[in-house]
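#struct-pred
JK: can someone run the complex with protoporphyrin IX containing FE? inputs below
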Amino acid sequence: MVTQQVLRPQAQAAVFLVLTVREGSEAAVREVLADIPGLTRAVGFRSPVDGLSTVVGIGAELWDRTYDLPRPAGLHPFEEIAGHRHRAVSTPGDLLIHLRAGRADLCFELARQIMSRLSGHADVVDEVHGFAYFERRDLLGFVDGTENPEGDDAVDAVTIGDEDPAYAGGSYVLVQKYLHDLAAWDAISVEEQERVIGRTKLDDIELADDVKPVNSHVALNTVEDDDGNDLDIVRHNMPFGSVGDAEFGTYFIGYAADPAVIELMLRNMFIGRPPGTYDRILDFSTAITGSLFFVPTVAFLEDPPSAPVAAVTASAESPAAAPDDGSLGIGSLHPRAT
Ligand code: HEM
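RT: done, structure tokens with the ligand placed:
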């Protein structure tokens, strides 16, 4: 079981492609997806030190159209979250392709190679080229990514385990494209900005609990389970923009073993905890896209089973599940895509 390269060091460059797949192109797209690990090796090998990586995510509707398999437990179309003031919109997306590297040219070349293979089958509905900005700052000027989990904690945060054995080793990814109102942001003081985020701006230290507002970004995104354990996600946000269009943005990308954790954070941000205390970052940032994807293992991408995974597991483990047609019932043990 080889997981896709979800956990990577923070990259210098990224390309985010969200695609829709044309009706009737499902089988062709499935074949291209199987080749993406190989395409990544081919482009990445030209500069191994730059660590080119790809993660492919599959949306719920494409899943149903493409794979004759039950949906992964957490996969569903992203549902809009409407707060009193701000909305986390849901926008179309059958595939997410997340490319990262130490150099922009590697991401660009791989995006070009993948899209030439998908030509006629899939359409780009959103394309963002992200760049690292100074000390991993977002365009609001704050260091972004500090509190990401590390090591085993990061693996646990993003990797599906025994709770959904058929898809163990996979992950989920939620993306949102935010545009910032930098004029409004720059009009408030640095101290006020720090109260919006919940950390200091220059040296990136978390504000003490007694001064950190309950509607700060950090406070609302600190979430726990019923037993008081921290619930983590792994974020690889990237700034992007266009000075000519006065477009300044953050591409939010969050990976998790359970998308409910990211959705809980979003409810805290957009509705508030308690309701009404929405995240003040939203007064300066508008979400213009939002989609959820399942991230299968490399083995699944390269060779997806064509029969329901649960049925495969049952016939492999339980003699009682053998068919009564006199056959050995092993035909479906290792089904292959046609
Ligand atoms: C923390 C920026 C959207 C989840 C942070 C921090 C910054 C930041 C500057 C503090 C440093 C750090 O620990 O990374 C942004 C910007 C966003 C955005 C500019 C888009 C406008 C989101 C969204 C989510 C999220 C949509 C979740 C759905 C988190 C989490 C933390 C965090 C979990 C760490 C909280 C902690 O444990 O201290 N973000 N963020 N962020 N953000 Fe965001």
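RT: quick notes.
The longest strand covers residues 122-131.
Residues 138, 140, 142-147, 176, 178, 197, 199, 217-218, 221-222, 233, 235, 250, 252, 254, 262, 265-266, 281, 285 surround protoporphyrin IX containing FE (CB under 6 Å).
JK: thanks, will look after standup
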